[in-house]
Amino acid sequence: MRLTKLIKIQLAVFSVILLAGLWAVFIYYYNLPSRFFGAGVYTVRVQLTQANGLYEGGDVTYRGVDVGRITDVRLTNTGAEAVLQLKEGTHIPDDLSIQVHSVSAVGEQYLSLLPRNGNSPPLKNGDVIPADRTTFPADINSLLAAANRGLNAIPRDNLKTVVDEAYTAFGGLGPELSRLVNGATVLAKDARKNLDPLVTVIDESKPILDSQTESADSVRAWAAHLATVTKQLQTNDTAVQGILQKAPQATDEVRALLDRLQPTLPIVLANLVSVGEVAVTYRDNLESLLVLLPQGAAAIQAIQVPNKNTKQDFKGAFLDFNLNLNLPPVCTTGFFPIQQQRAASFQDYPDRPKGGVYCRIPQDSTLTAVRGARNLPCETRPGKRAATVKQCESNEDYVPLNDGFNWKGDPNATWTGQGVPEFDPGQPRPAQSPPASAPPGSPLAFTGPAPLPTPAAQYDPATGTYVGPDGQVYTQSNLAHGADKEKTWQQMLTPPPGN
Length: 499
Known about the structure:
This protein is about 40% helix and about 10% strand.
């Protein structure tokens, strides 16, 4: 085949290009400029206690990035020395540690540079790293030998038993174990996302652990009590089973009861709220009542003791009543006069008159009505006494209408038919007005002079005298001791004629 001149020229150009490419690849692969001329690199020596499988051409990394090669490994008087060629342009602090690692379990060794201080000056050509900064991985042969010794120390029969039991425990649980592993993976990912809160929990767990340590005795006591309860449950196993078996029927009965009570239960509970508020307000009174109740029951039982085991025909309470009429005299101050009082024989029930109708003599009076409404203790104002809640809550003091036994109603003469108003304590009283006649058509209307109210007076049985409301002394001789005329109970309740 004849080659033309053009073909020869093309072949020559292709050969030159091919040789140039091969030379460039050879130079780049073998890094000839740095190997022979030191271009772009600088040399650092590392002192080693042992070579540990390092070889010429091994990699050198800084924070996982390839930054150079091992150009030589040679023996020294103290161990070995590795010569490193590192690339220029990478800031590597001279205060660093060097670790020897393996690429894999059976792979080649390489050097990993780990900085100890990022502010130290960078490495420069000719620096020497001492051997005390170098660490080596565990020898794989030593690890395999230790693992072999550990396995040989386990009895084969026991090891076979462990394997058989593991197969029995986990046999056929592949899907479950797979879900467990997947769940653990998801948990680990979530833990990674919430790393800061987890670290905070770990850092702040010391107070919780300290509290558990301090309460160790209480925890032991709780565990002992729990063991006692568990033992009781075991002892009464039959009773517990009966409860569990009958619990559904009991629950159905309770549900049926609640269904029947559903229309009225809210009303009852609402009313109980008011009752509860009253009970809270009168708590001290209820406590006192509960304290006195046993004593009262004992007193009631005591009146039956004298007739116990006797042959009397009458079996009952041994109790004596002494009838004292008008001793002490009744309180009429603050009530309606005799003209407006209803007879006890009436059977109708008219509306209660407006205002407060109670004994309005001084609170410290010891003559009558000591336990009257005026002396009721105020629950919300300790130390204060009043007849109504309004008076209890008021800042004014109680003002009586009269300081004696003579009847004295409202200053506006309520005995003529006018209602009794409730005056606030401390308010000025209206001016005294003369008695007026009742409104026309009123059942209380009357003609003539207004009758005097019937008062109560202290009677002296020794002399048979008493002081009337007009200040005069009157005598009722047939009520005195030693009177010749026989007295009747009607005479004791009615005034004598002419007086």
